Amino acid sequence: MMPVVLPFPDxxxxxxxxxxxxxxxxxxxxxxxxxxxxxxxxxxxxIEGADVVVFVGLSDPDRKALPVRFVAQTAKExxxxxxxxxAPYLAYMRQDARFRPGEAVAxxxxxxxxxxxxxxxxxxxxxxxxxxxxxxLYRIPVSCVDSAPELANWIRHEVSNPILIGPDEESAQWVxxxxxxxxxxxxxxxxxxxxxxxxxxxxxxxxRLRGFTPVLVDDIVSTGRTLAAAADHLRRLDLPPPxxxxxxPLFSGNAHELLKRAGVERIVSxxxxxxxxxxxxLAKPIAHAVAEHLARIQRGTGP
Length: 303
Known about the structure:
6-stranded parallel β-sheet, 16 strands, alpha/beta, elongated, 8 helices
């Protein structure tokens, strides 16, 4: 029986592309709300014996987390052989330690929440800090898709004479990997926060940037303030307007407009989260990771 992909409403386009690569069937997933805000989930009931792939980017996770559990548990009740989750963007990775007494360590709590209803997980470039590997958090098999080859390919073909620039030290891991893939130079800016809404950045060696087209790269853009500060700094160095390349385009509030006002010439992102800036497709590497999990299940060597 062919796999069945159950996409949440915002994820239909990427889920459809992944399904074609997997030769899987896209099944029904209806999600509506009662007047009091409770979710009502209805899924394809022709899934007995099938391997089911729940497909949802977990931006706005408080709204989506319970429906994911409802879909996964219902699929198992209807006889699915296995139920996995493709979450191109995986939420609750920021709070991976207890920084003040009494705080919830959301990363581990959320991992247990998903462990209880799923057999495997595929995500794209999770935001890891103090946790080295995602399988340190999750008990189910996990795969982390690396977007660097797709980003590097886009930059090589779309930007003339690029230099990659990370807006802060946290971005160094992403920038260095993409630079290696694209065979182009890179630089990482120094960041200093002056409060929750004020960021200052500086280039360690401005002369290294001369003669290049700056390409700002970050894994997640939420408020956009760090990238906007970086773009403003580059503008004051009399460099060409930067291109901004983002893995996970959360773009909360007016973040997209903020970057434009800061002088960013072009903003592009992967399609891990649906947004008007999407230009870099992830269907093929995601499908490859899913196929590996399904193959293990079919061989009887995995859950």
